[in-house]
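#structure-requests
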Amino acid sequence: MQPSKVHTADVFILIAGLLAAWQGLYLLTGELAITPPLDTLLHTVRLLGREQFWPHVVETATAFAAGLAISVVGGLVIGLTLGFHRLSGEVFEPILTALYSIPKVTLYPVILLIFGIHMSAKVAFGTIHGIVPIIIFTMDAVRNIKPVYIKTGRLYRLDPATMARTILIPAAVPEIFTGLRVGFSLTLIGTLIGEMFGSLQGLGFVLMRAIGLHDVKMIMAVTLLLVVFAASINTILLVIDHRLHVRAI
């Protein structure tokens, strides 16, 4: 019980420190740059009470969910295939690494030409952000499986399908889940960037319009919503990730 109490106390101390730093930054910069924590929270509550705001939330959530689903399914299938087929993995790994390192914004004009300013463009832009890290982490997870596991499967004369289902995939799950966690964050970023630069609806569009109008209250409120959502889900994923790695030791 004691470790969980300490952990909870650490969380509250961290949140208190962040709020104090936020308030201090507001005192230094003033309302032209940011709004204070309490004002931001109250404006966010009022924003959530506006009926016209929710279509933007639904638009972003729909695009993000679709992009994440495609990234996860596609990333796992491609990553497992390249991981188990070593030659294909060695051929495609430099290409994937290069694609992972380039700024995806450079690809957005191509995405717009193909999909236009529609939901499909945001889904595609979110997907190209999230799918590559999932492929890379999955591929590396399969490659780094301990040889003793494979020897054990061969000792018991398991067929390839049974070995993959009962030994290889469970052994690779911790690293694969890390890739899913990274893919989650990058897919959200890609979806929002897609809305900011080529959309007429969504939280990214609201944020970009607020920046154009220098509506600091709106900027801070939307940013707070996104940060709370991303931090909450990432905390849950991080706890699961940690437990998977501890169990694999």
